Amino acid sequence: MKPKVLVTREVFEDVLQCLSQYFEVTSNQSDVVMDPETLAAKLSGKQGAIITLSDRIDAALLARCPNLKAVCNIAVGYNNIDLAACTKAGVMATNTPGVLDDTTGDFTWTLILATARRLTEAEAYLRAGKWDGWKLKQFLGLDVHHATLGIFGLGRIGQVVARRAIGFEMRVIYHDVRQAVPEVEQACRASFATKEELLSQADIVTIHVPYSPATHHLIGKSELGRMKPTAILINASRGGVVDDAALIEALRSGTIAGAGLDVFENEPKLNPQFLELKNVVMAPHIASSSLATRHKMAMLAAENLVAALTTGKPPNLLNPV
Ligand code: GLV
After folding, report:
1. Is the CB of 72 under 6 A from ligand 1?
2. Residue to probe by mutation, ligand 1, list 52, 53, 304, most atoms within 8 Å of CB
3. Where, residue-wise, is CATH 3.40.50.720 in the chain?
4. Cβ 99 under 6 angstroms from ligand 1
5. Angle at 272 between CA 158 and CA 230, to 5 degrees
6. pLDDT per residue over 149-202, tens digit each?
7. Ligand 1: distance of its center to the CA of 250 in Å?
8. What are the DSSP calls for 207-262, one per residue?
9. CA–CA distance, 243 with 78 (Å, rounded to integer)
10. CA-297 nearest atom, ligand 1
11. Which of 167, 128, 163 shows the shortest CA–CA distance to 278?
């Protein structure tokens, strides 16, 4: 008998076909998000699951799923999974690193350029029929070329963003818990800065750290207050790394000039005050969403699940079990 697995959200058909060769698959192609109760009920009797960041895997859920051996996230971030609880329950957890770095880096640049040059604000003005001709001072923005880019987190995605900055002839500074090795700094043409130096010197601050208790509200009122009033903040990492209420106040009062956001606290229920602001460019958590990359992420999660339940050695294992 094939092991039973659950796929919690809609995936590509060929991913389901791949899984069906090894498992009896329960899928959710209608893509309805499962609440914790439904998730626990659907997972009961399953040995494995392909999950997404909308599924919370914690001790309470694991206690109700004694057959579970592996949960495979379709995401590089895994703050939706309580790893310690998984380890204690003997459940392997995996993520999808590597396959989304370039695409997420590209989208970070989409946000940087759109925010610096006020693209969505200008387009809304044009669509509203308000454009009555060229004006010298219309939608004056921030120059990206030759500006200083400040990167929080020079991991895989932060490095992609830094390398793209070479084309814009920018000065790149970064802050991280550890200084990068010289080879990485050279390839990125990036130099280490303290958090305070980065905040006060950067024209564009972009965040590429994982979300954890250590990075909760990494950017709040005092950090925003250290930024230049002409600077912009970009977040394509995770909601919660930025204190959204403090950011809204900073955008409203002119503490900073603008923000480009792909992620929000309590998403998808973002703070409605964002919608009243013109100086914010927003997207619904789509930084990795190119067709090719989302397909690779789902396939990698499937490969992890197959390996977890056949060899016990998934390529992207996050916890020692
Ligand atoms: C998306 O947010 C991811 O972590 O892959």
Report:
1. no
2. 53
3. 4-99+291-310, 101-282
4. no
5. 50
6. 999 999 999 999 999 999 999 999 999 999 999 999 999 999 999 999 999 999
7. 26
8. E----SGGGTTSB-HHHHHHS-TT-EEEE-S-TTSB-HHHHHHHHHHTSSSEEEES
9. 20
10. 5
11. 128
56 C-alpha to ligand 1 centroid (Å): 14
> Which architecture, in CATH terms, is 101-282?
3-Layer(aba) Sandwich (3.40)
Would residue 295 show up in a list of annotated catalytic residues for this protein? no
Active site (annotated) includes residue 285: yes
Residue 164 annotated to the active site: no
Residue nearest to atom 4 of ligand 1 (CA): 77
pLDDT one-digit tens code per residue, 48-94: 999 999 999 999 999 999 999 999 999 999 999 999 999 999 999 99
What tokens were used for 148? 């200083």
158: tokens are 């932060």
SS (H, E, C) 119-180: HHHHHHHHHCCCCCCCCCCCCCCCCCCCCEEEEECCCHHHHHHHHHHHHHCCEEEEECCCCC
10 is written with which tokens? 């809609």
Please give the CATH number for the structural domain made up of 4-99+291-310.
3.40.50.720
User: Cis bond leading into 229, ω under 30°?
Assistant: no
Give how far Cα 131 sits from Cα of 115, 134, 142, 240, 267, Å: 20, 8, 21, 37, 34
Q: Which residue's alpha carbon is at the smallest distance from atom 3 of ligand 1?
A: 75
β-partners of residue 5 are 25, 48
Helix then strand then coil, % of the chain, to nearest 5: 40, 15, 45
At residue 107, the 3 state secondary structure works out as helix
**What are residue 219's DSSP bridge partners?**
242
pTM value? 0.97
Q: Residue 93: which H helix or E strand, with range?
A: strand 92-94
Which residue reads 């309590």 in tokens? 266
